[in-house]
Amino acid sequence: MEGFFKQVDKIKVLYDVTYKIMLFICKLLLIADILITSMSVAGRYISFIPDPAWSEEIVLTLMAYMAVLSAALAIRRGAHIRMTALDVYLPKKLIQALDILNDICVLGLAIVMIVIGWGYASTIGAKGSYVSMPSLSKFWLYFPIPVAGVAMFVFELEAIYNDIKRIVLKEGNK
User: 153 Cβ partners below 8 Å, 6+ apart?
Assistant: First the structure.
C-alpha cells in the first residue's frame, strides 16, 4: 500500500503549482487594489491626478476575487478556523472520521460554488454591466466564485487523500 501512496504523491507538484498560481494571482490583485485605491484617493485631493469613475467598482471586484481565492488557499494550508478544544478528549479514530466528513462537506461546497457560481456568472452576470463602465459585463463580478470553487475542489481532493493516507499508513499515531 505504501507503493501506491508513493506513486500518488508524485502529483503533489500539481497541487503546489496550483497553489502558487492562486497565490500569485492574489498578490497581483492586491497590488492592483492598492494602486487603484491610492490613485482614486489622491485624485480627490490633487488636481492633476485623475479620479476615475470606475475605480470603486473595480476595487470591489478585485476584493471579491481576493476573498474567495484566499479562502481556497487557506484550505490547502489548513488555516481555516476549526474547533479543536475537544480533540484531546475524543478518540483518534473519531477525529479522523470527522476530518474526512469535514473535507467531504467542503468538497460539496466547492461543487456547489462551481455549478451555481457558473450559473450566476453566465446568466445574471452576462446580462448586467458595470454602471461606470457599460462595456464591461458583470460576468467578471460573479466569475471568482466558480474559479475559487475549482481551486477548493482541487485542494480538498488533496486534503481527503492526505486524510486517507494518514489513516492507512497510521501516520497520525506517531
Answer: 107, 110, 111, 114
Instruction: Give the closest residue to 66 by CA, choosing from 142, 144, 121.
Output: 144
CB 163 within 8 A of CB 83: no
> Can you tell me whether residue 115 is helix, strand or coil?
helix
Residue bearing cell 488533496:
158
Contact 26, 69 (CB under 8 A): yes
Residue 32 vs residues 28, 81, 89, 137: alpha-carbon distances, Å: 6, 28, 47, 19
Helix/strand/coil percentages in the chain, nearest 5: 80, 0, 20
CB 94 within 8 A of CB 173: no
What is the value of pTM for the model shown?
0.84
| 10-residue averages of pLDDT along the chain (174 residues) | 85 91 95 95 90 90 94 90 86 92 95 96 88 88 94 94 89 54
- The residue with cell 497590488 is 31
- Residue 9 CA to residue 52 CA, distance in Å, equals 49
How many Cβ atoms are within 10 Å of 46's Cβ, its own excluded? 11
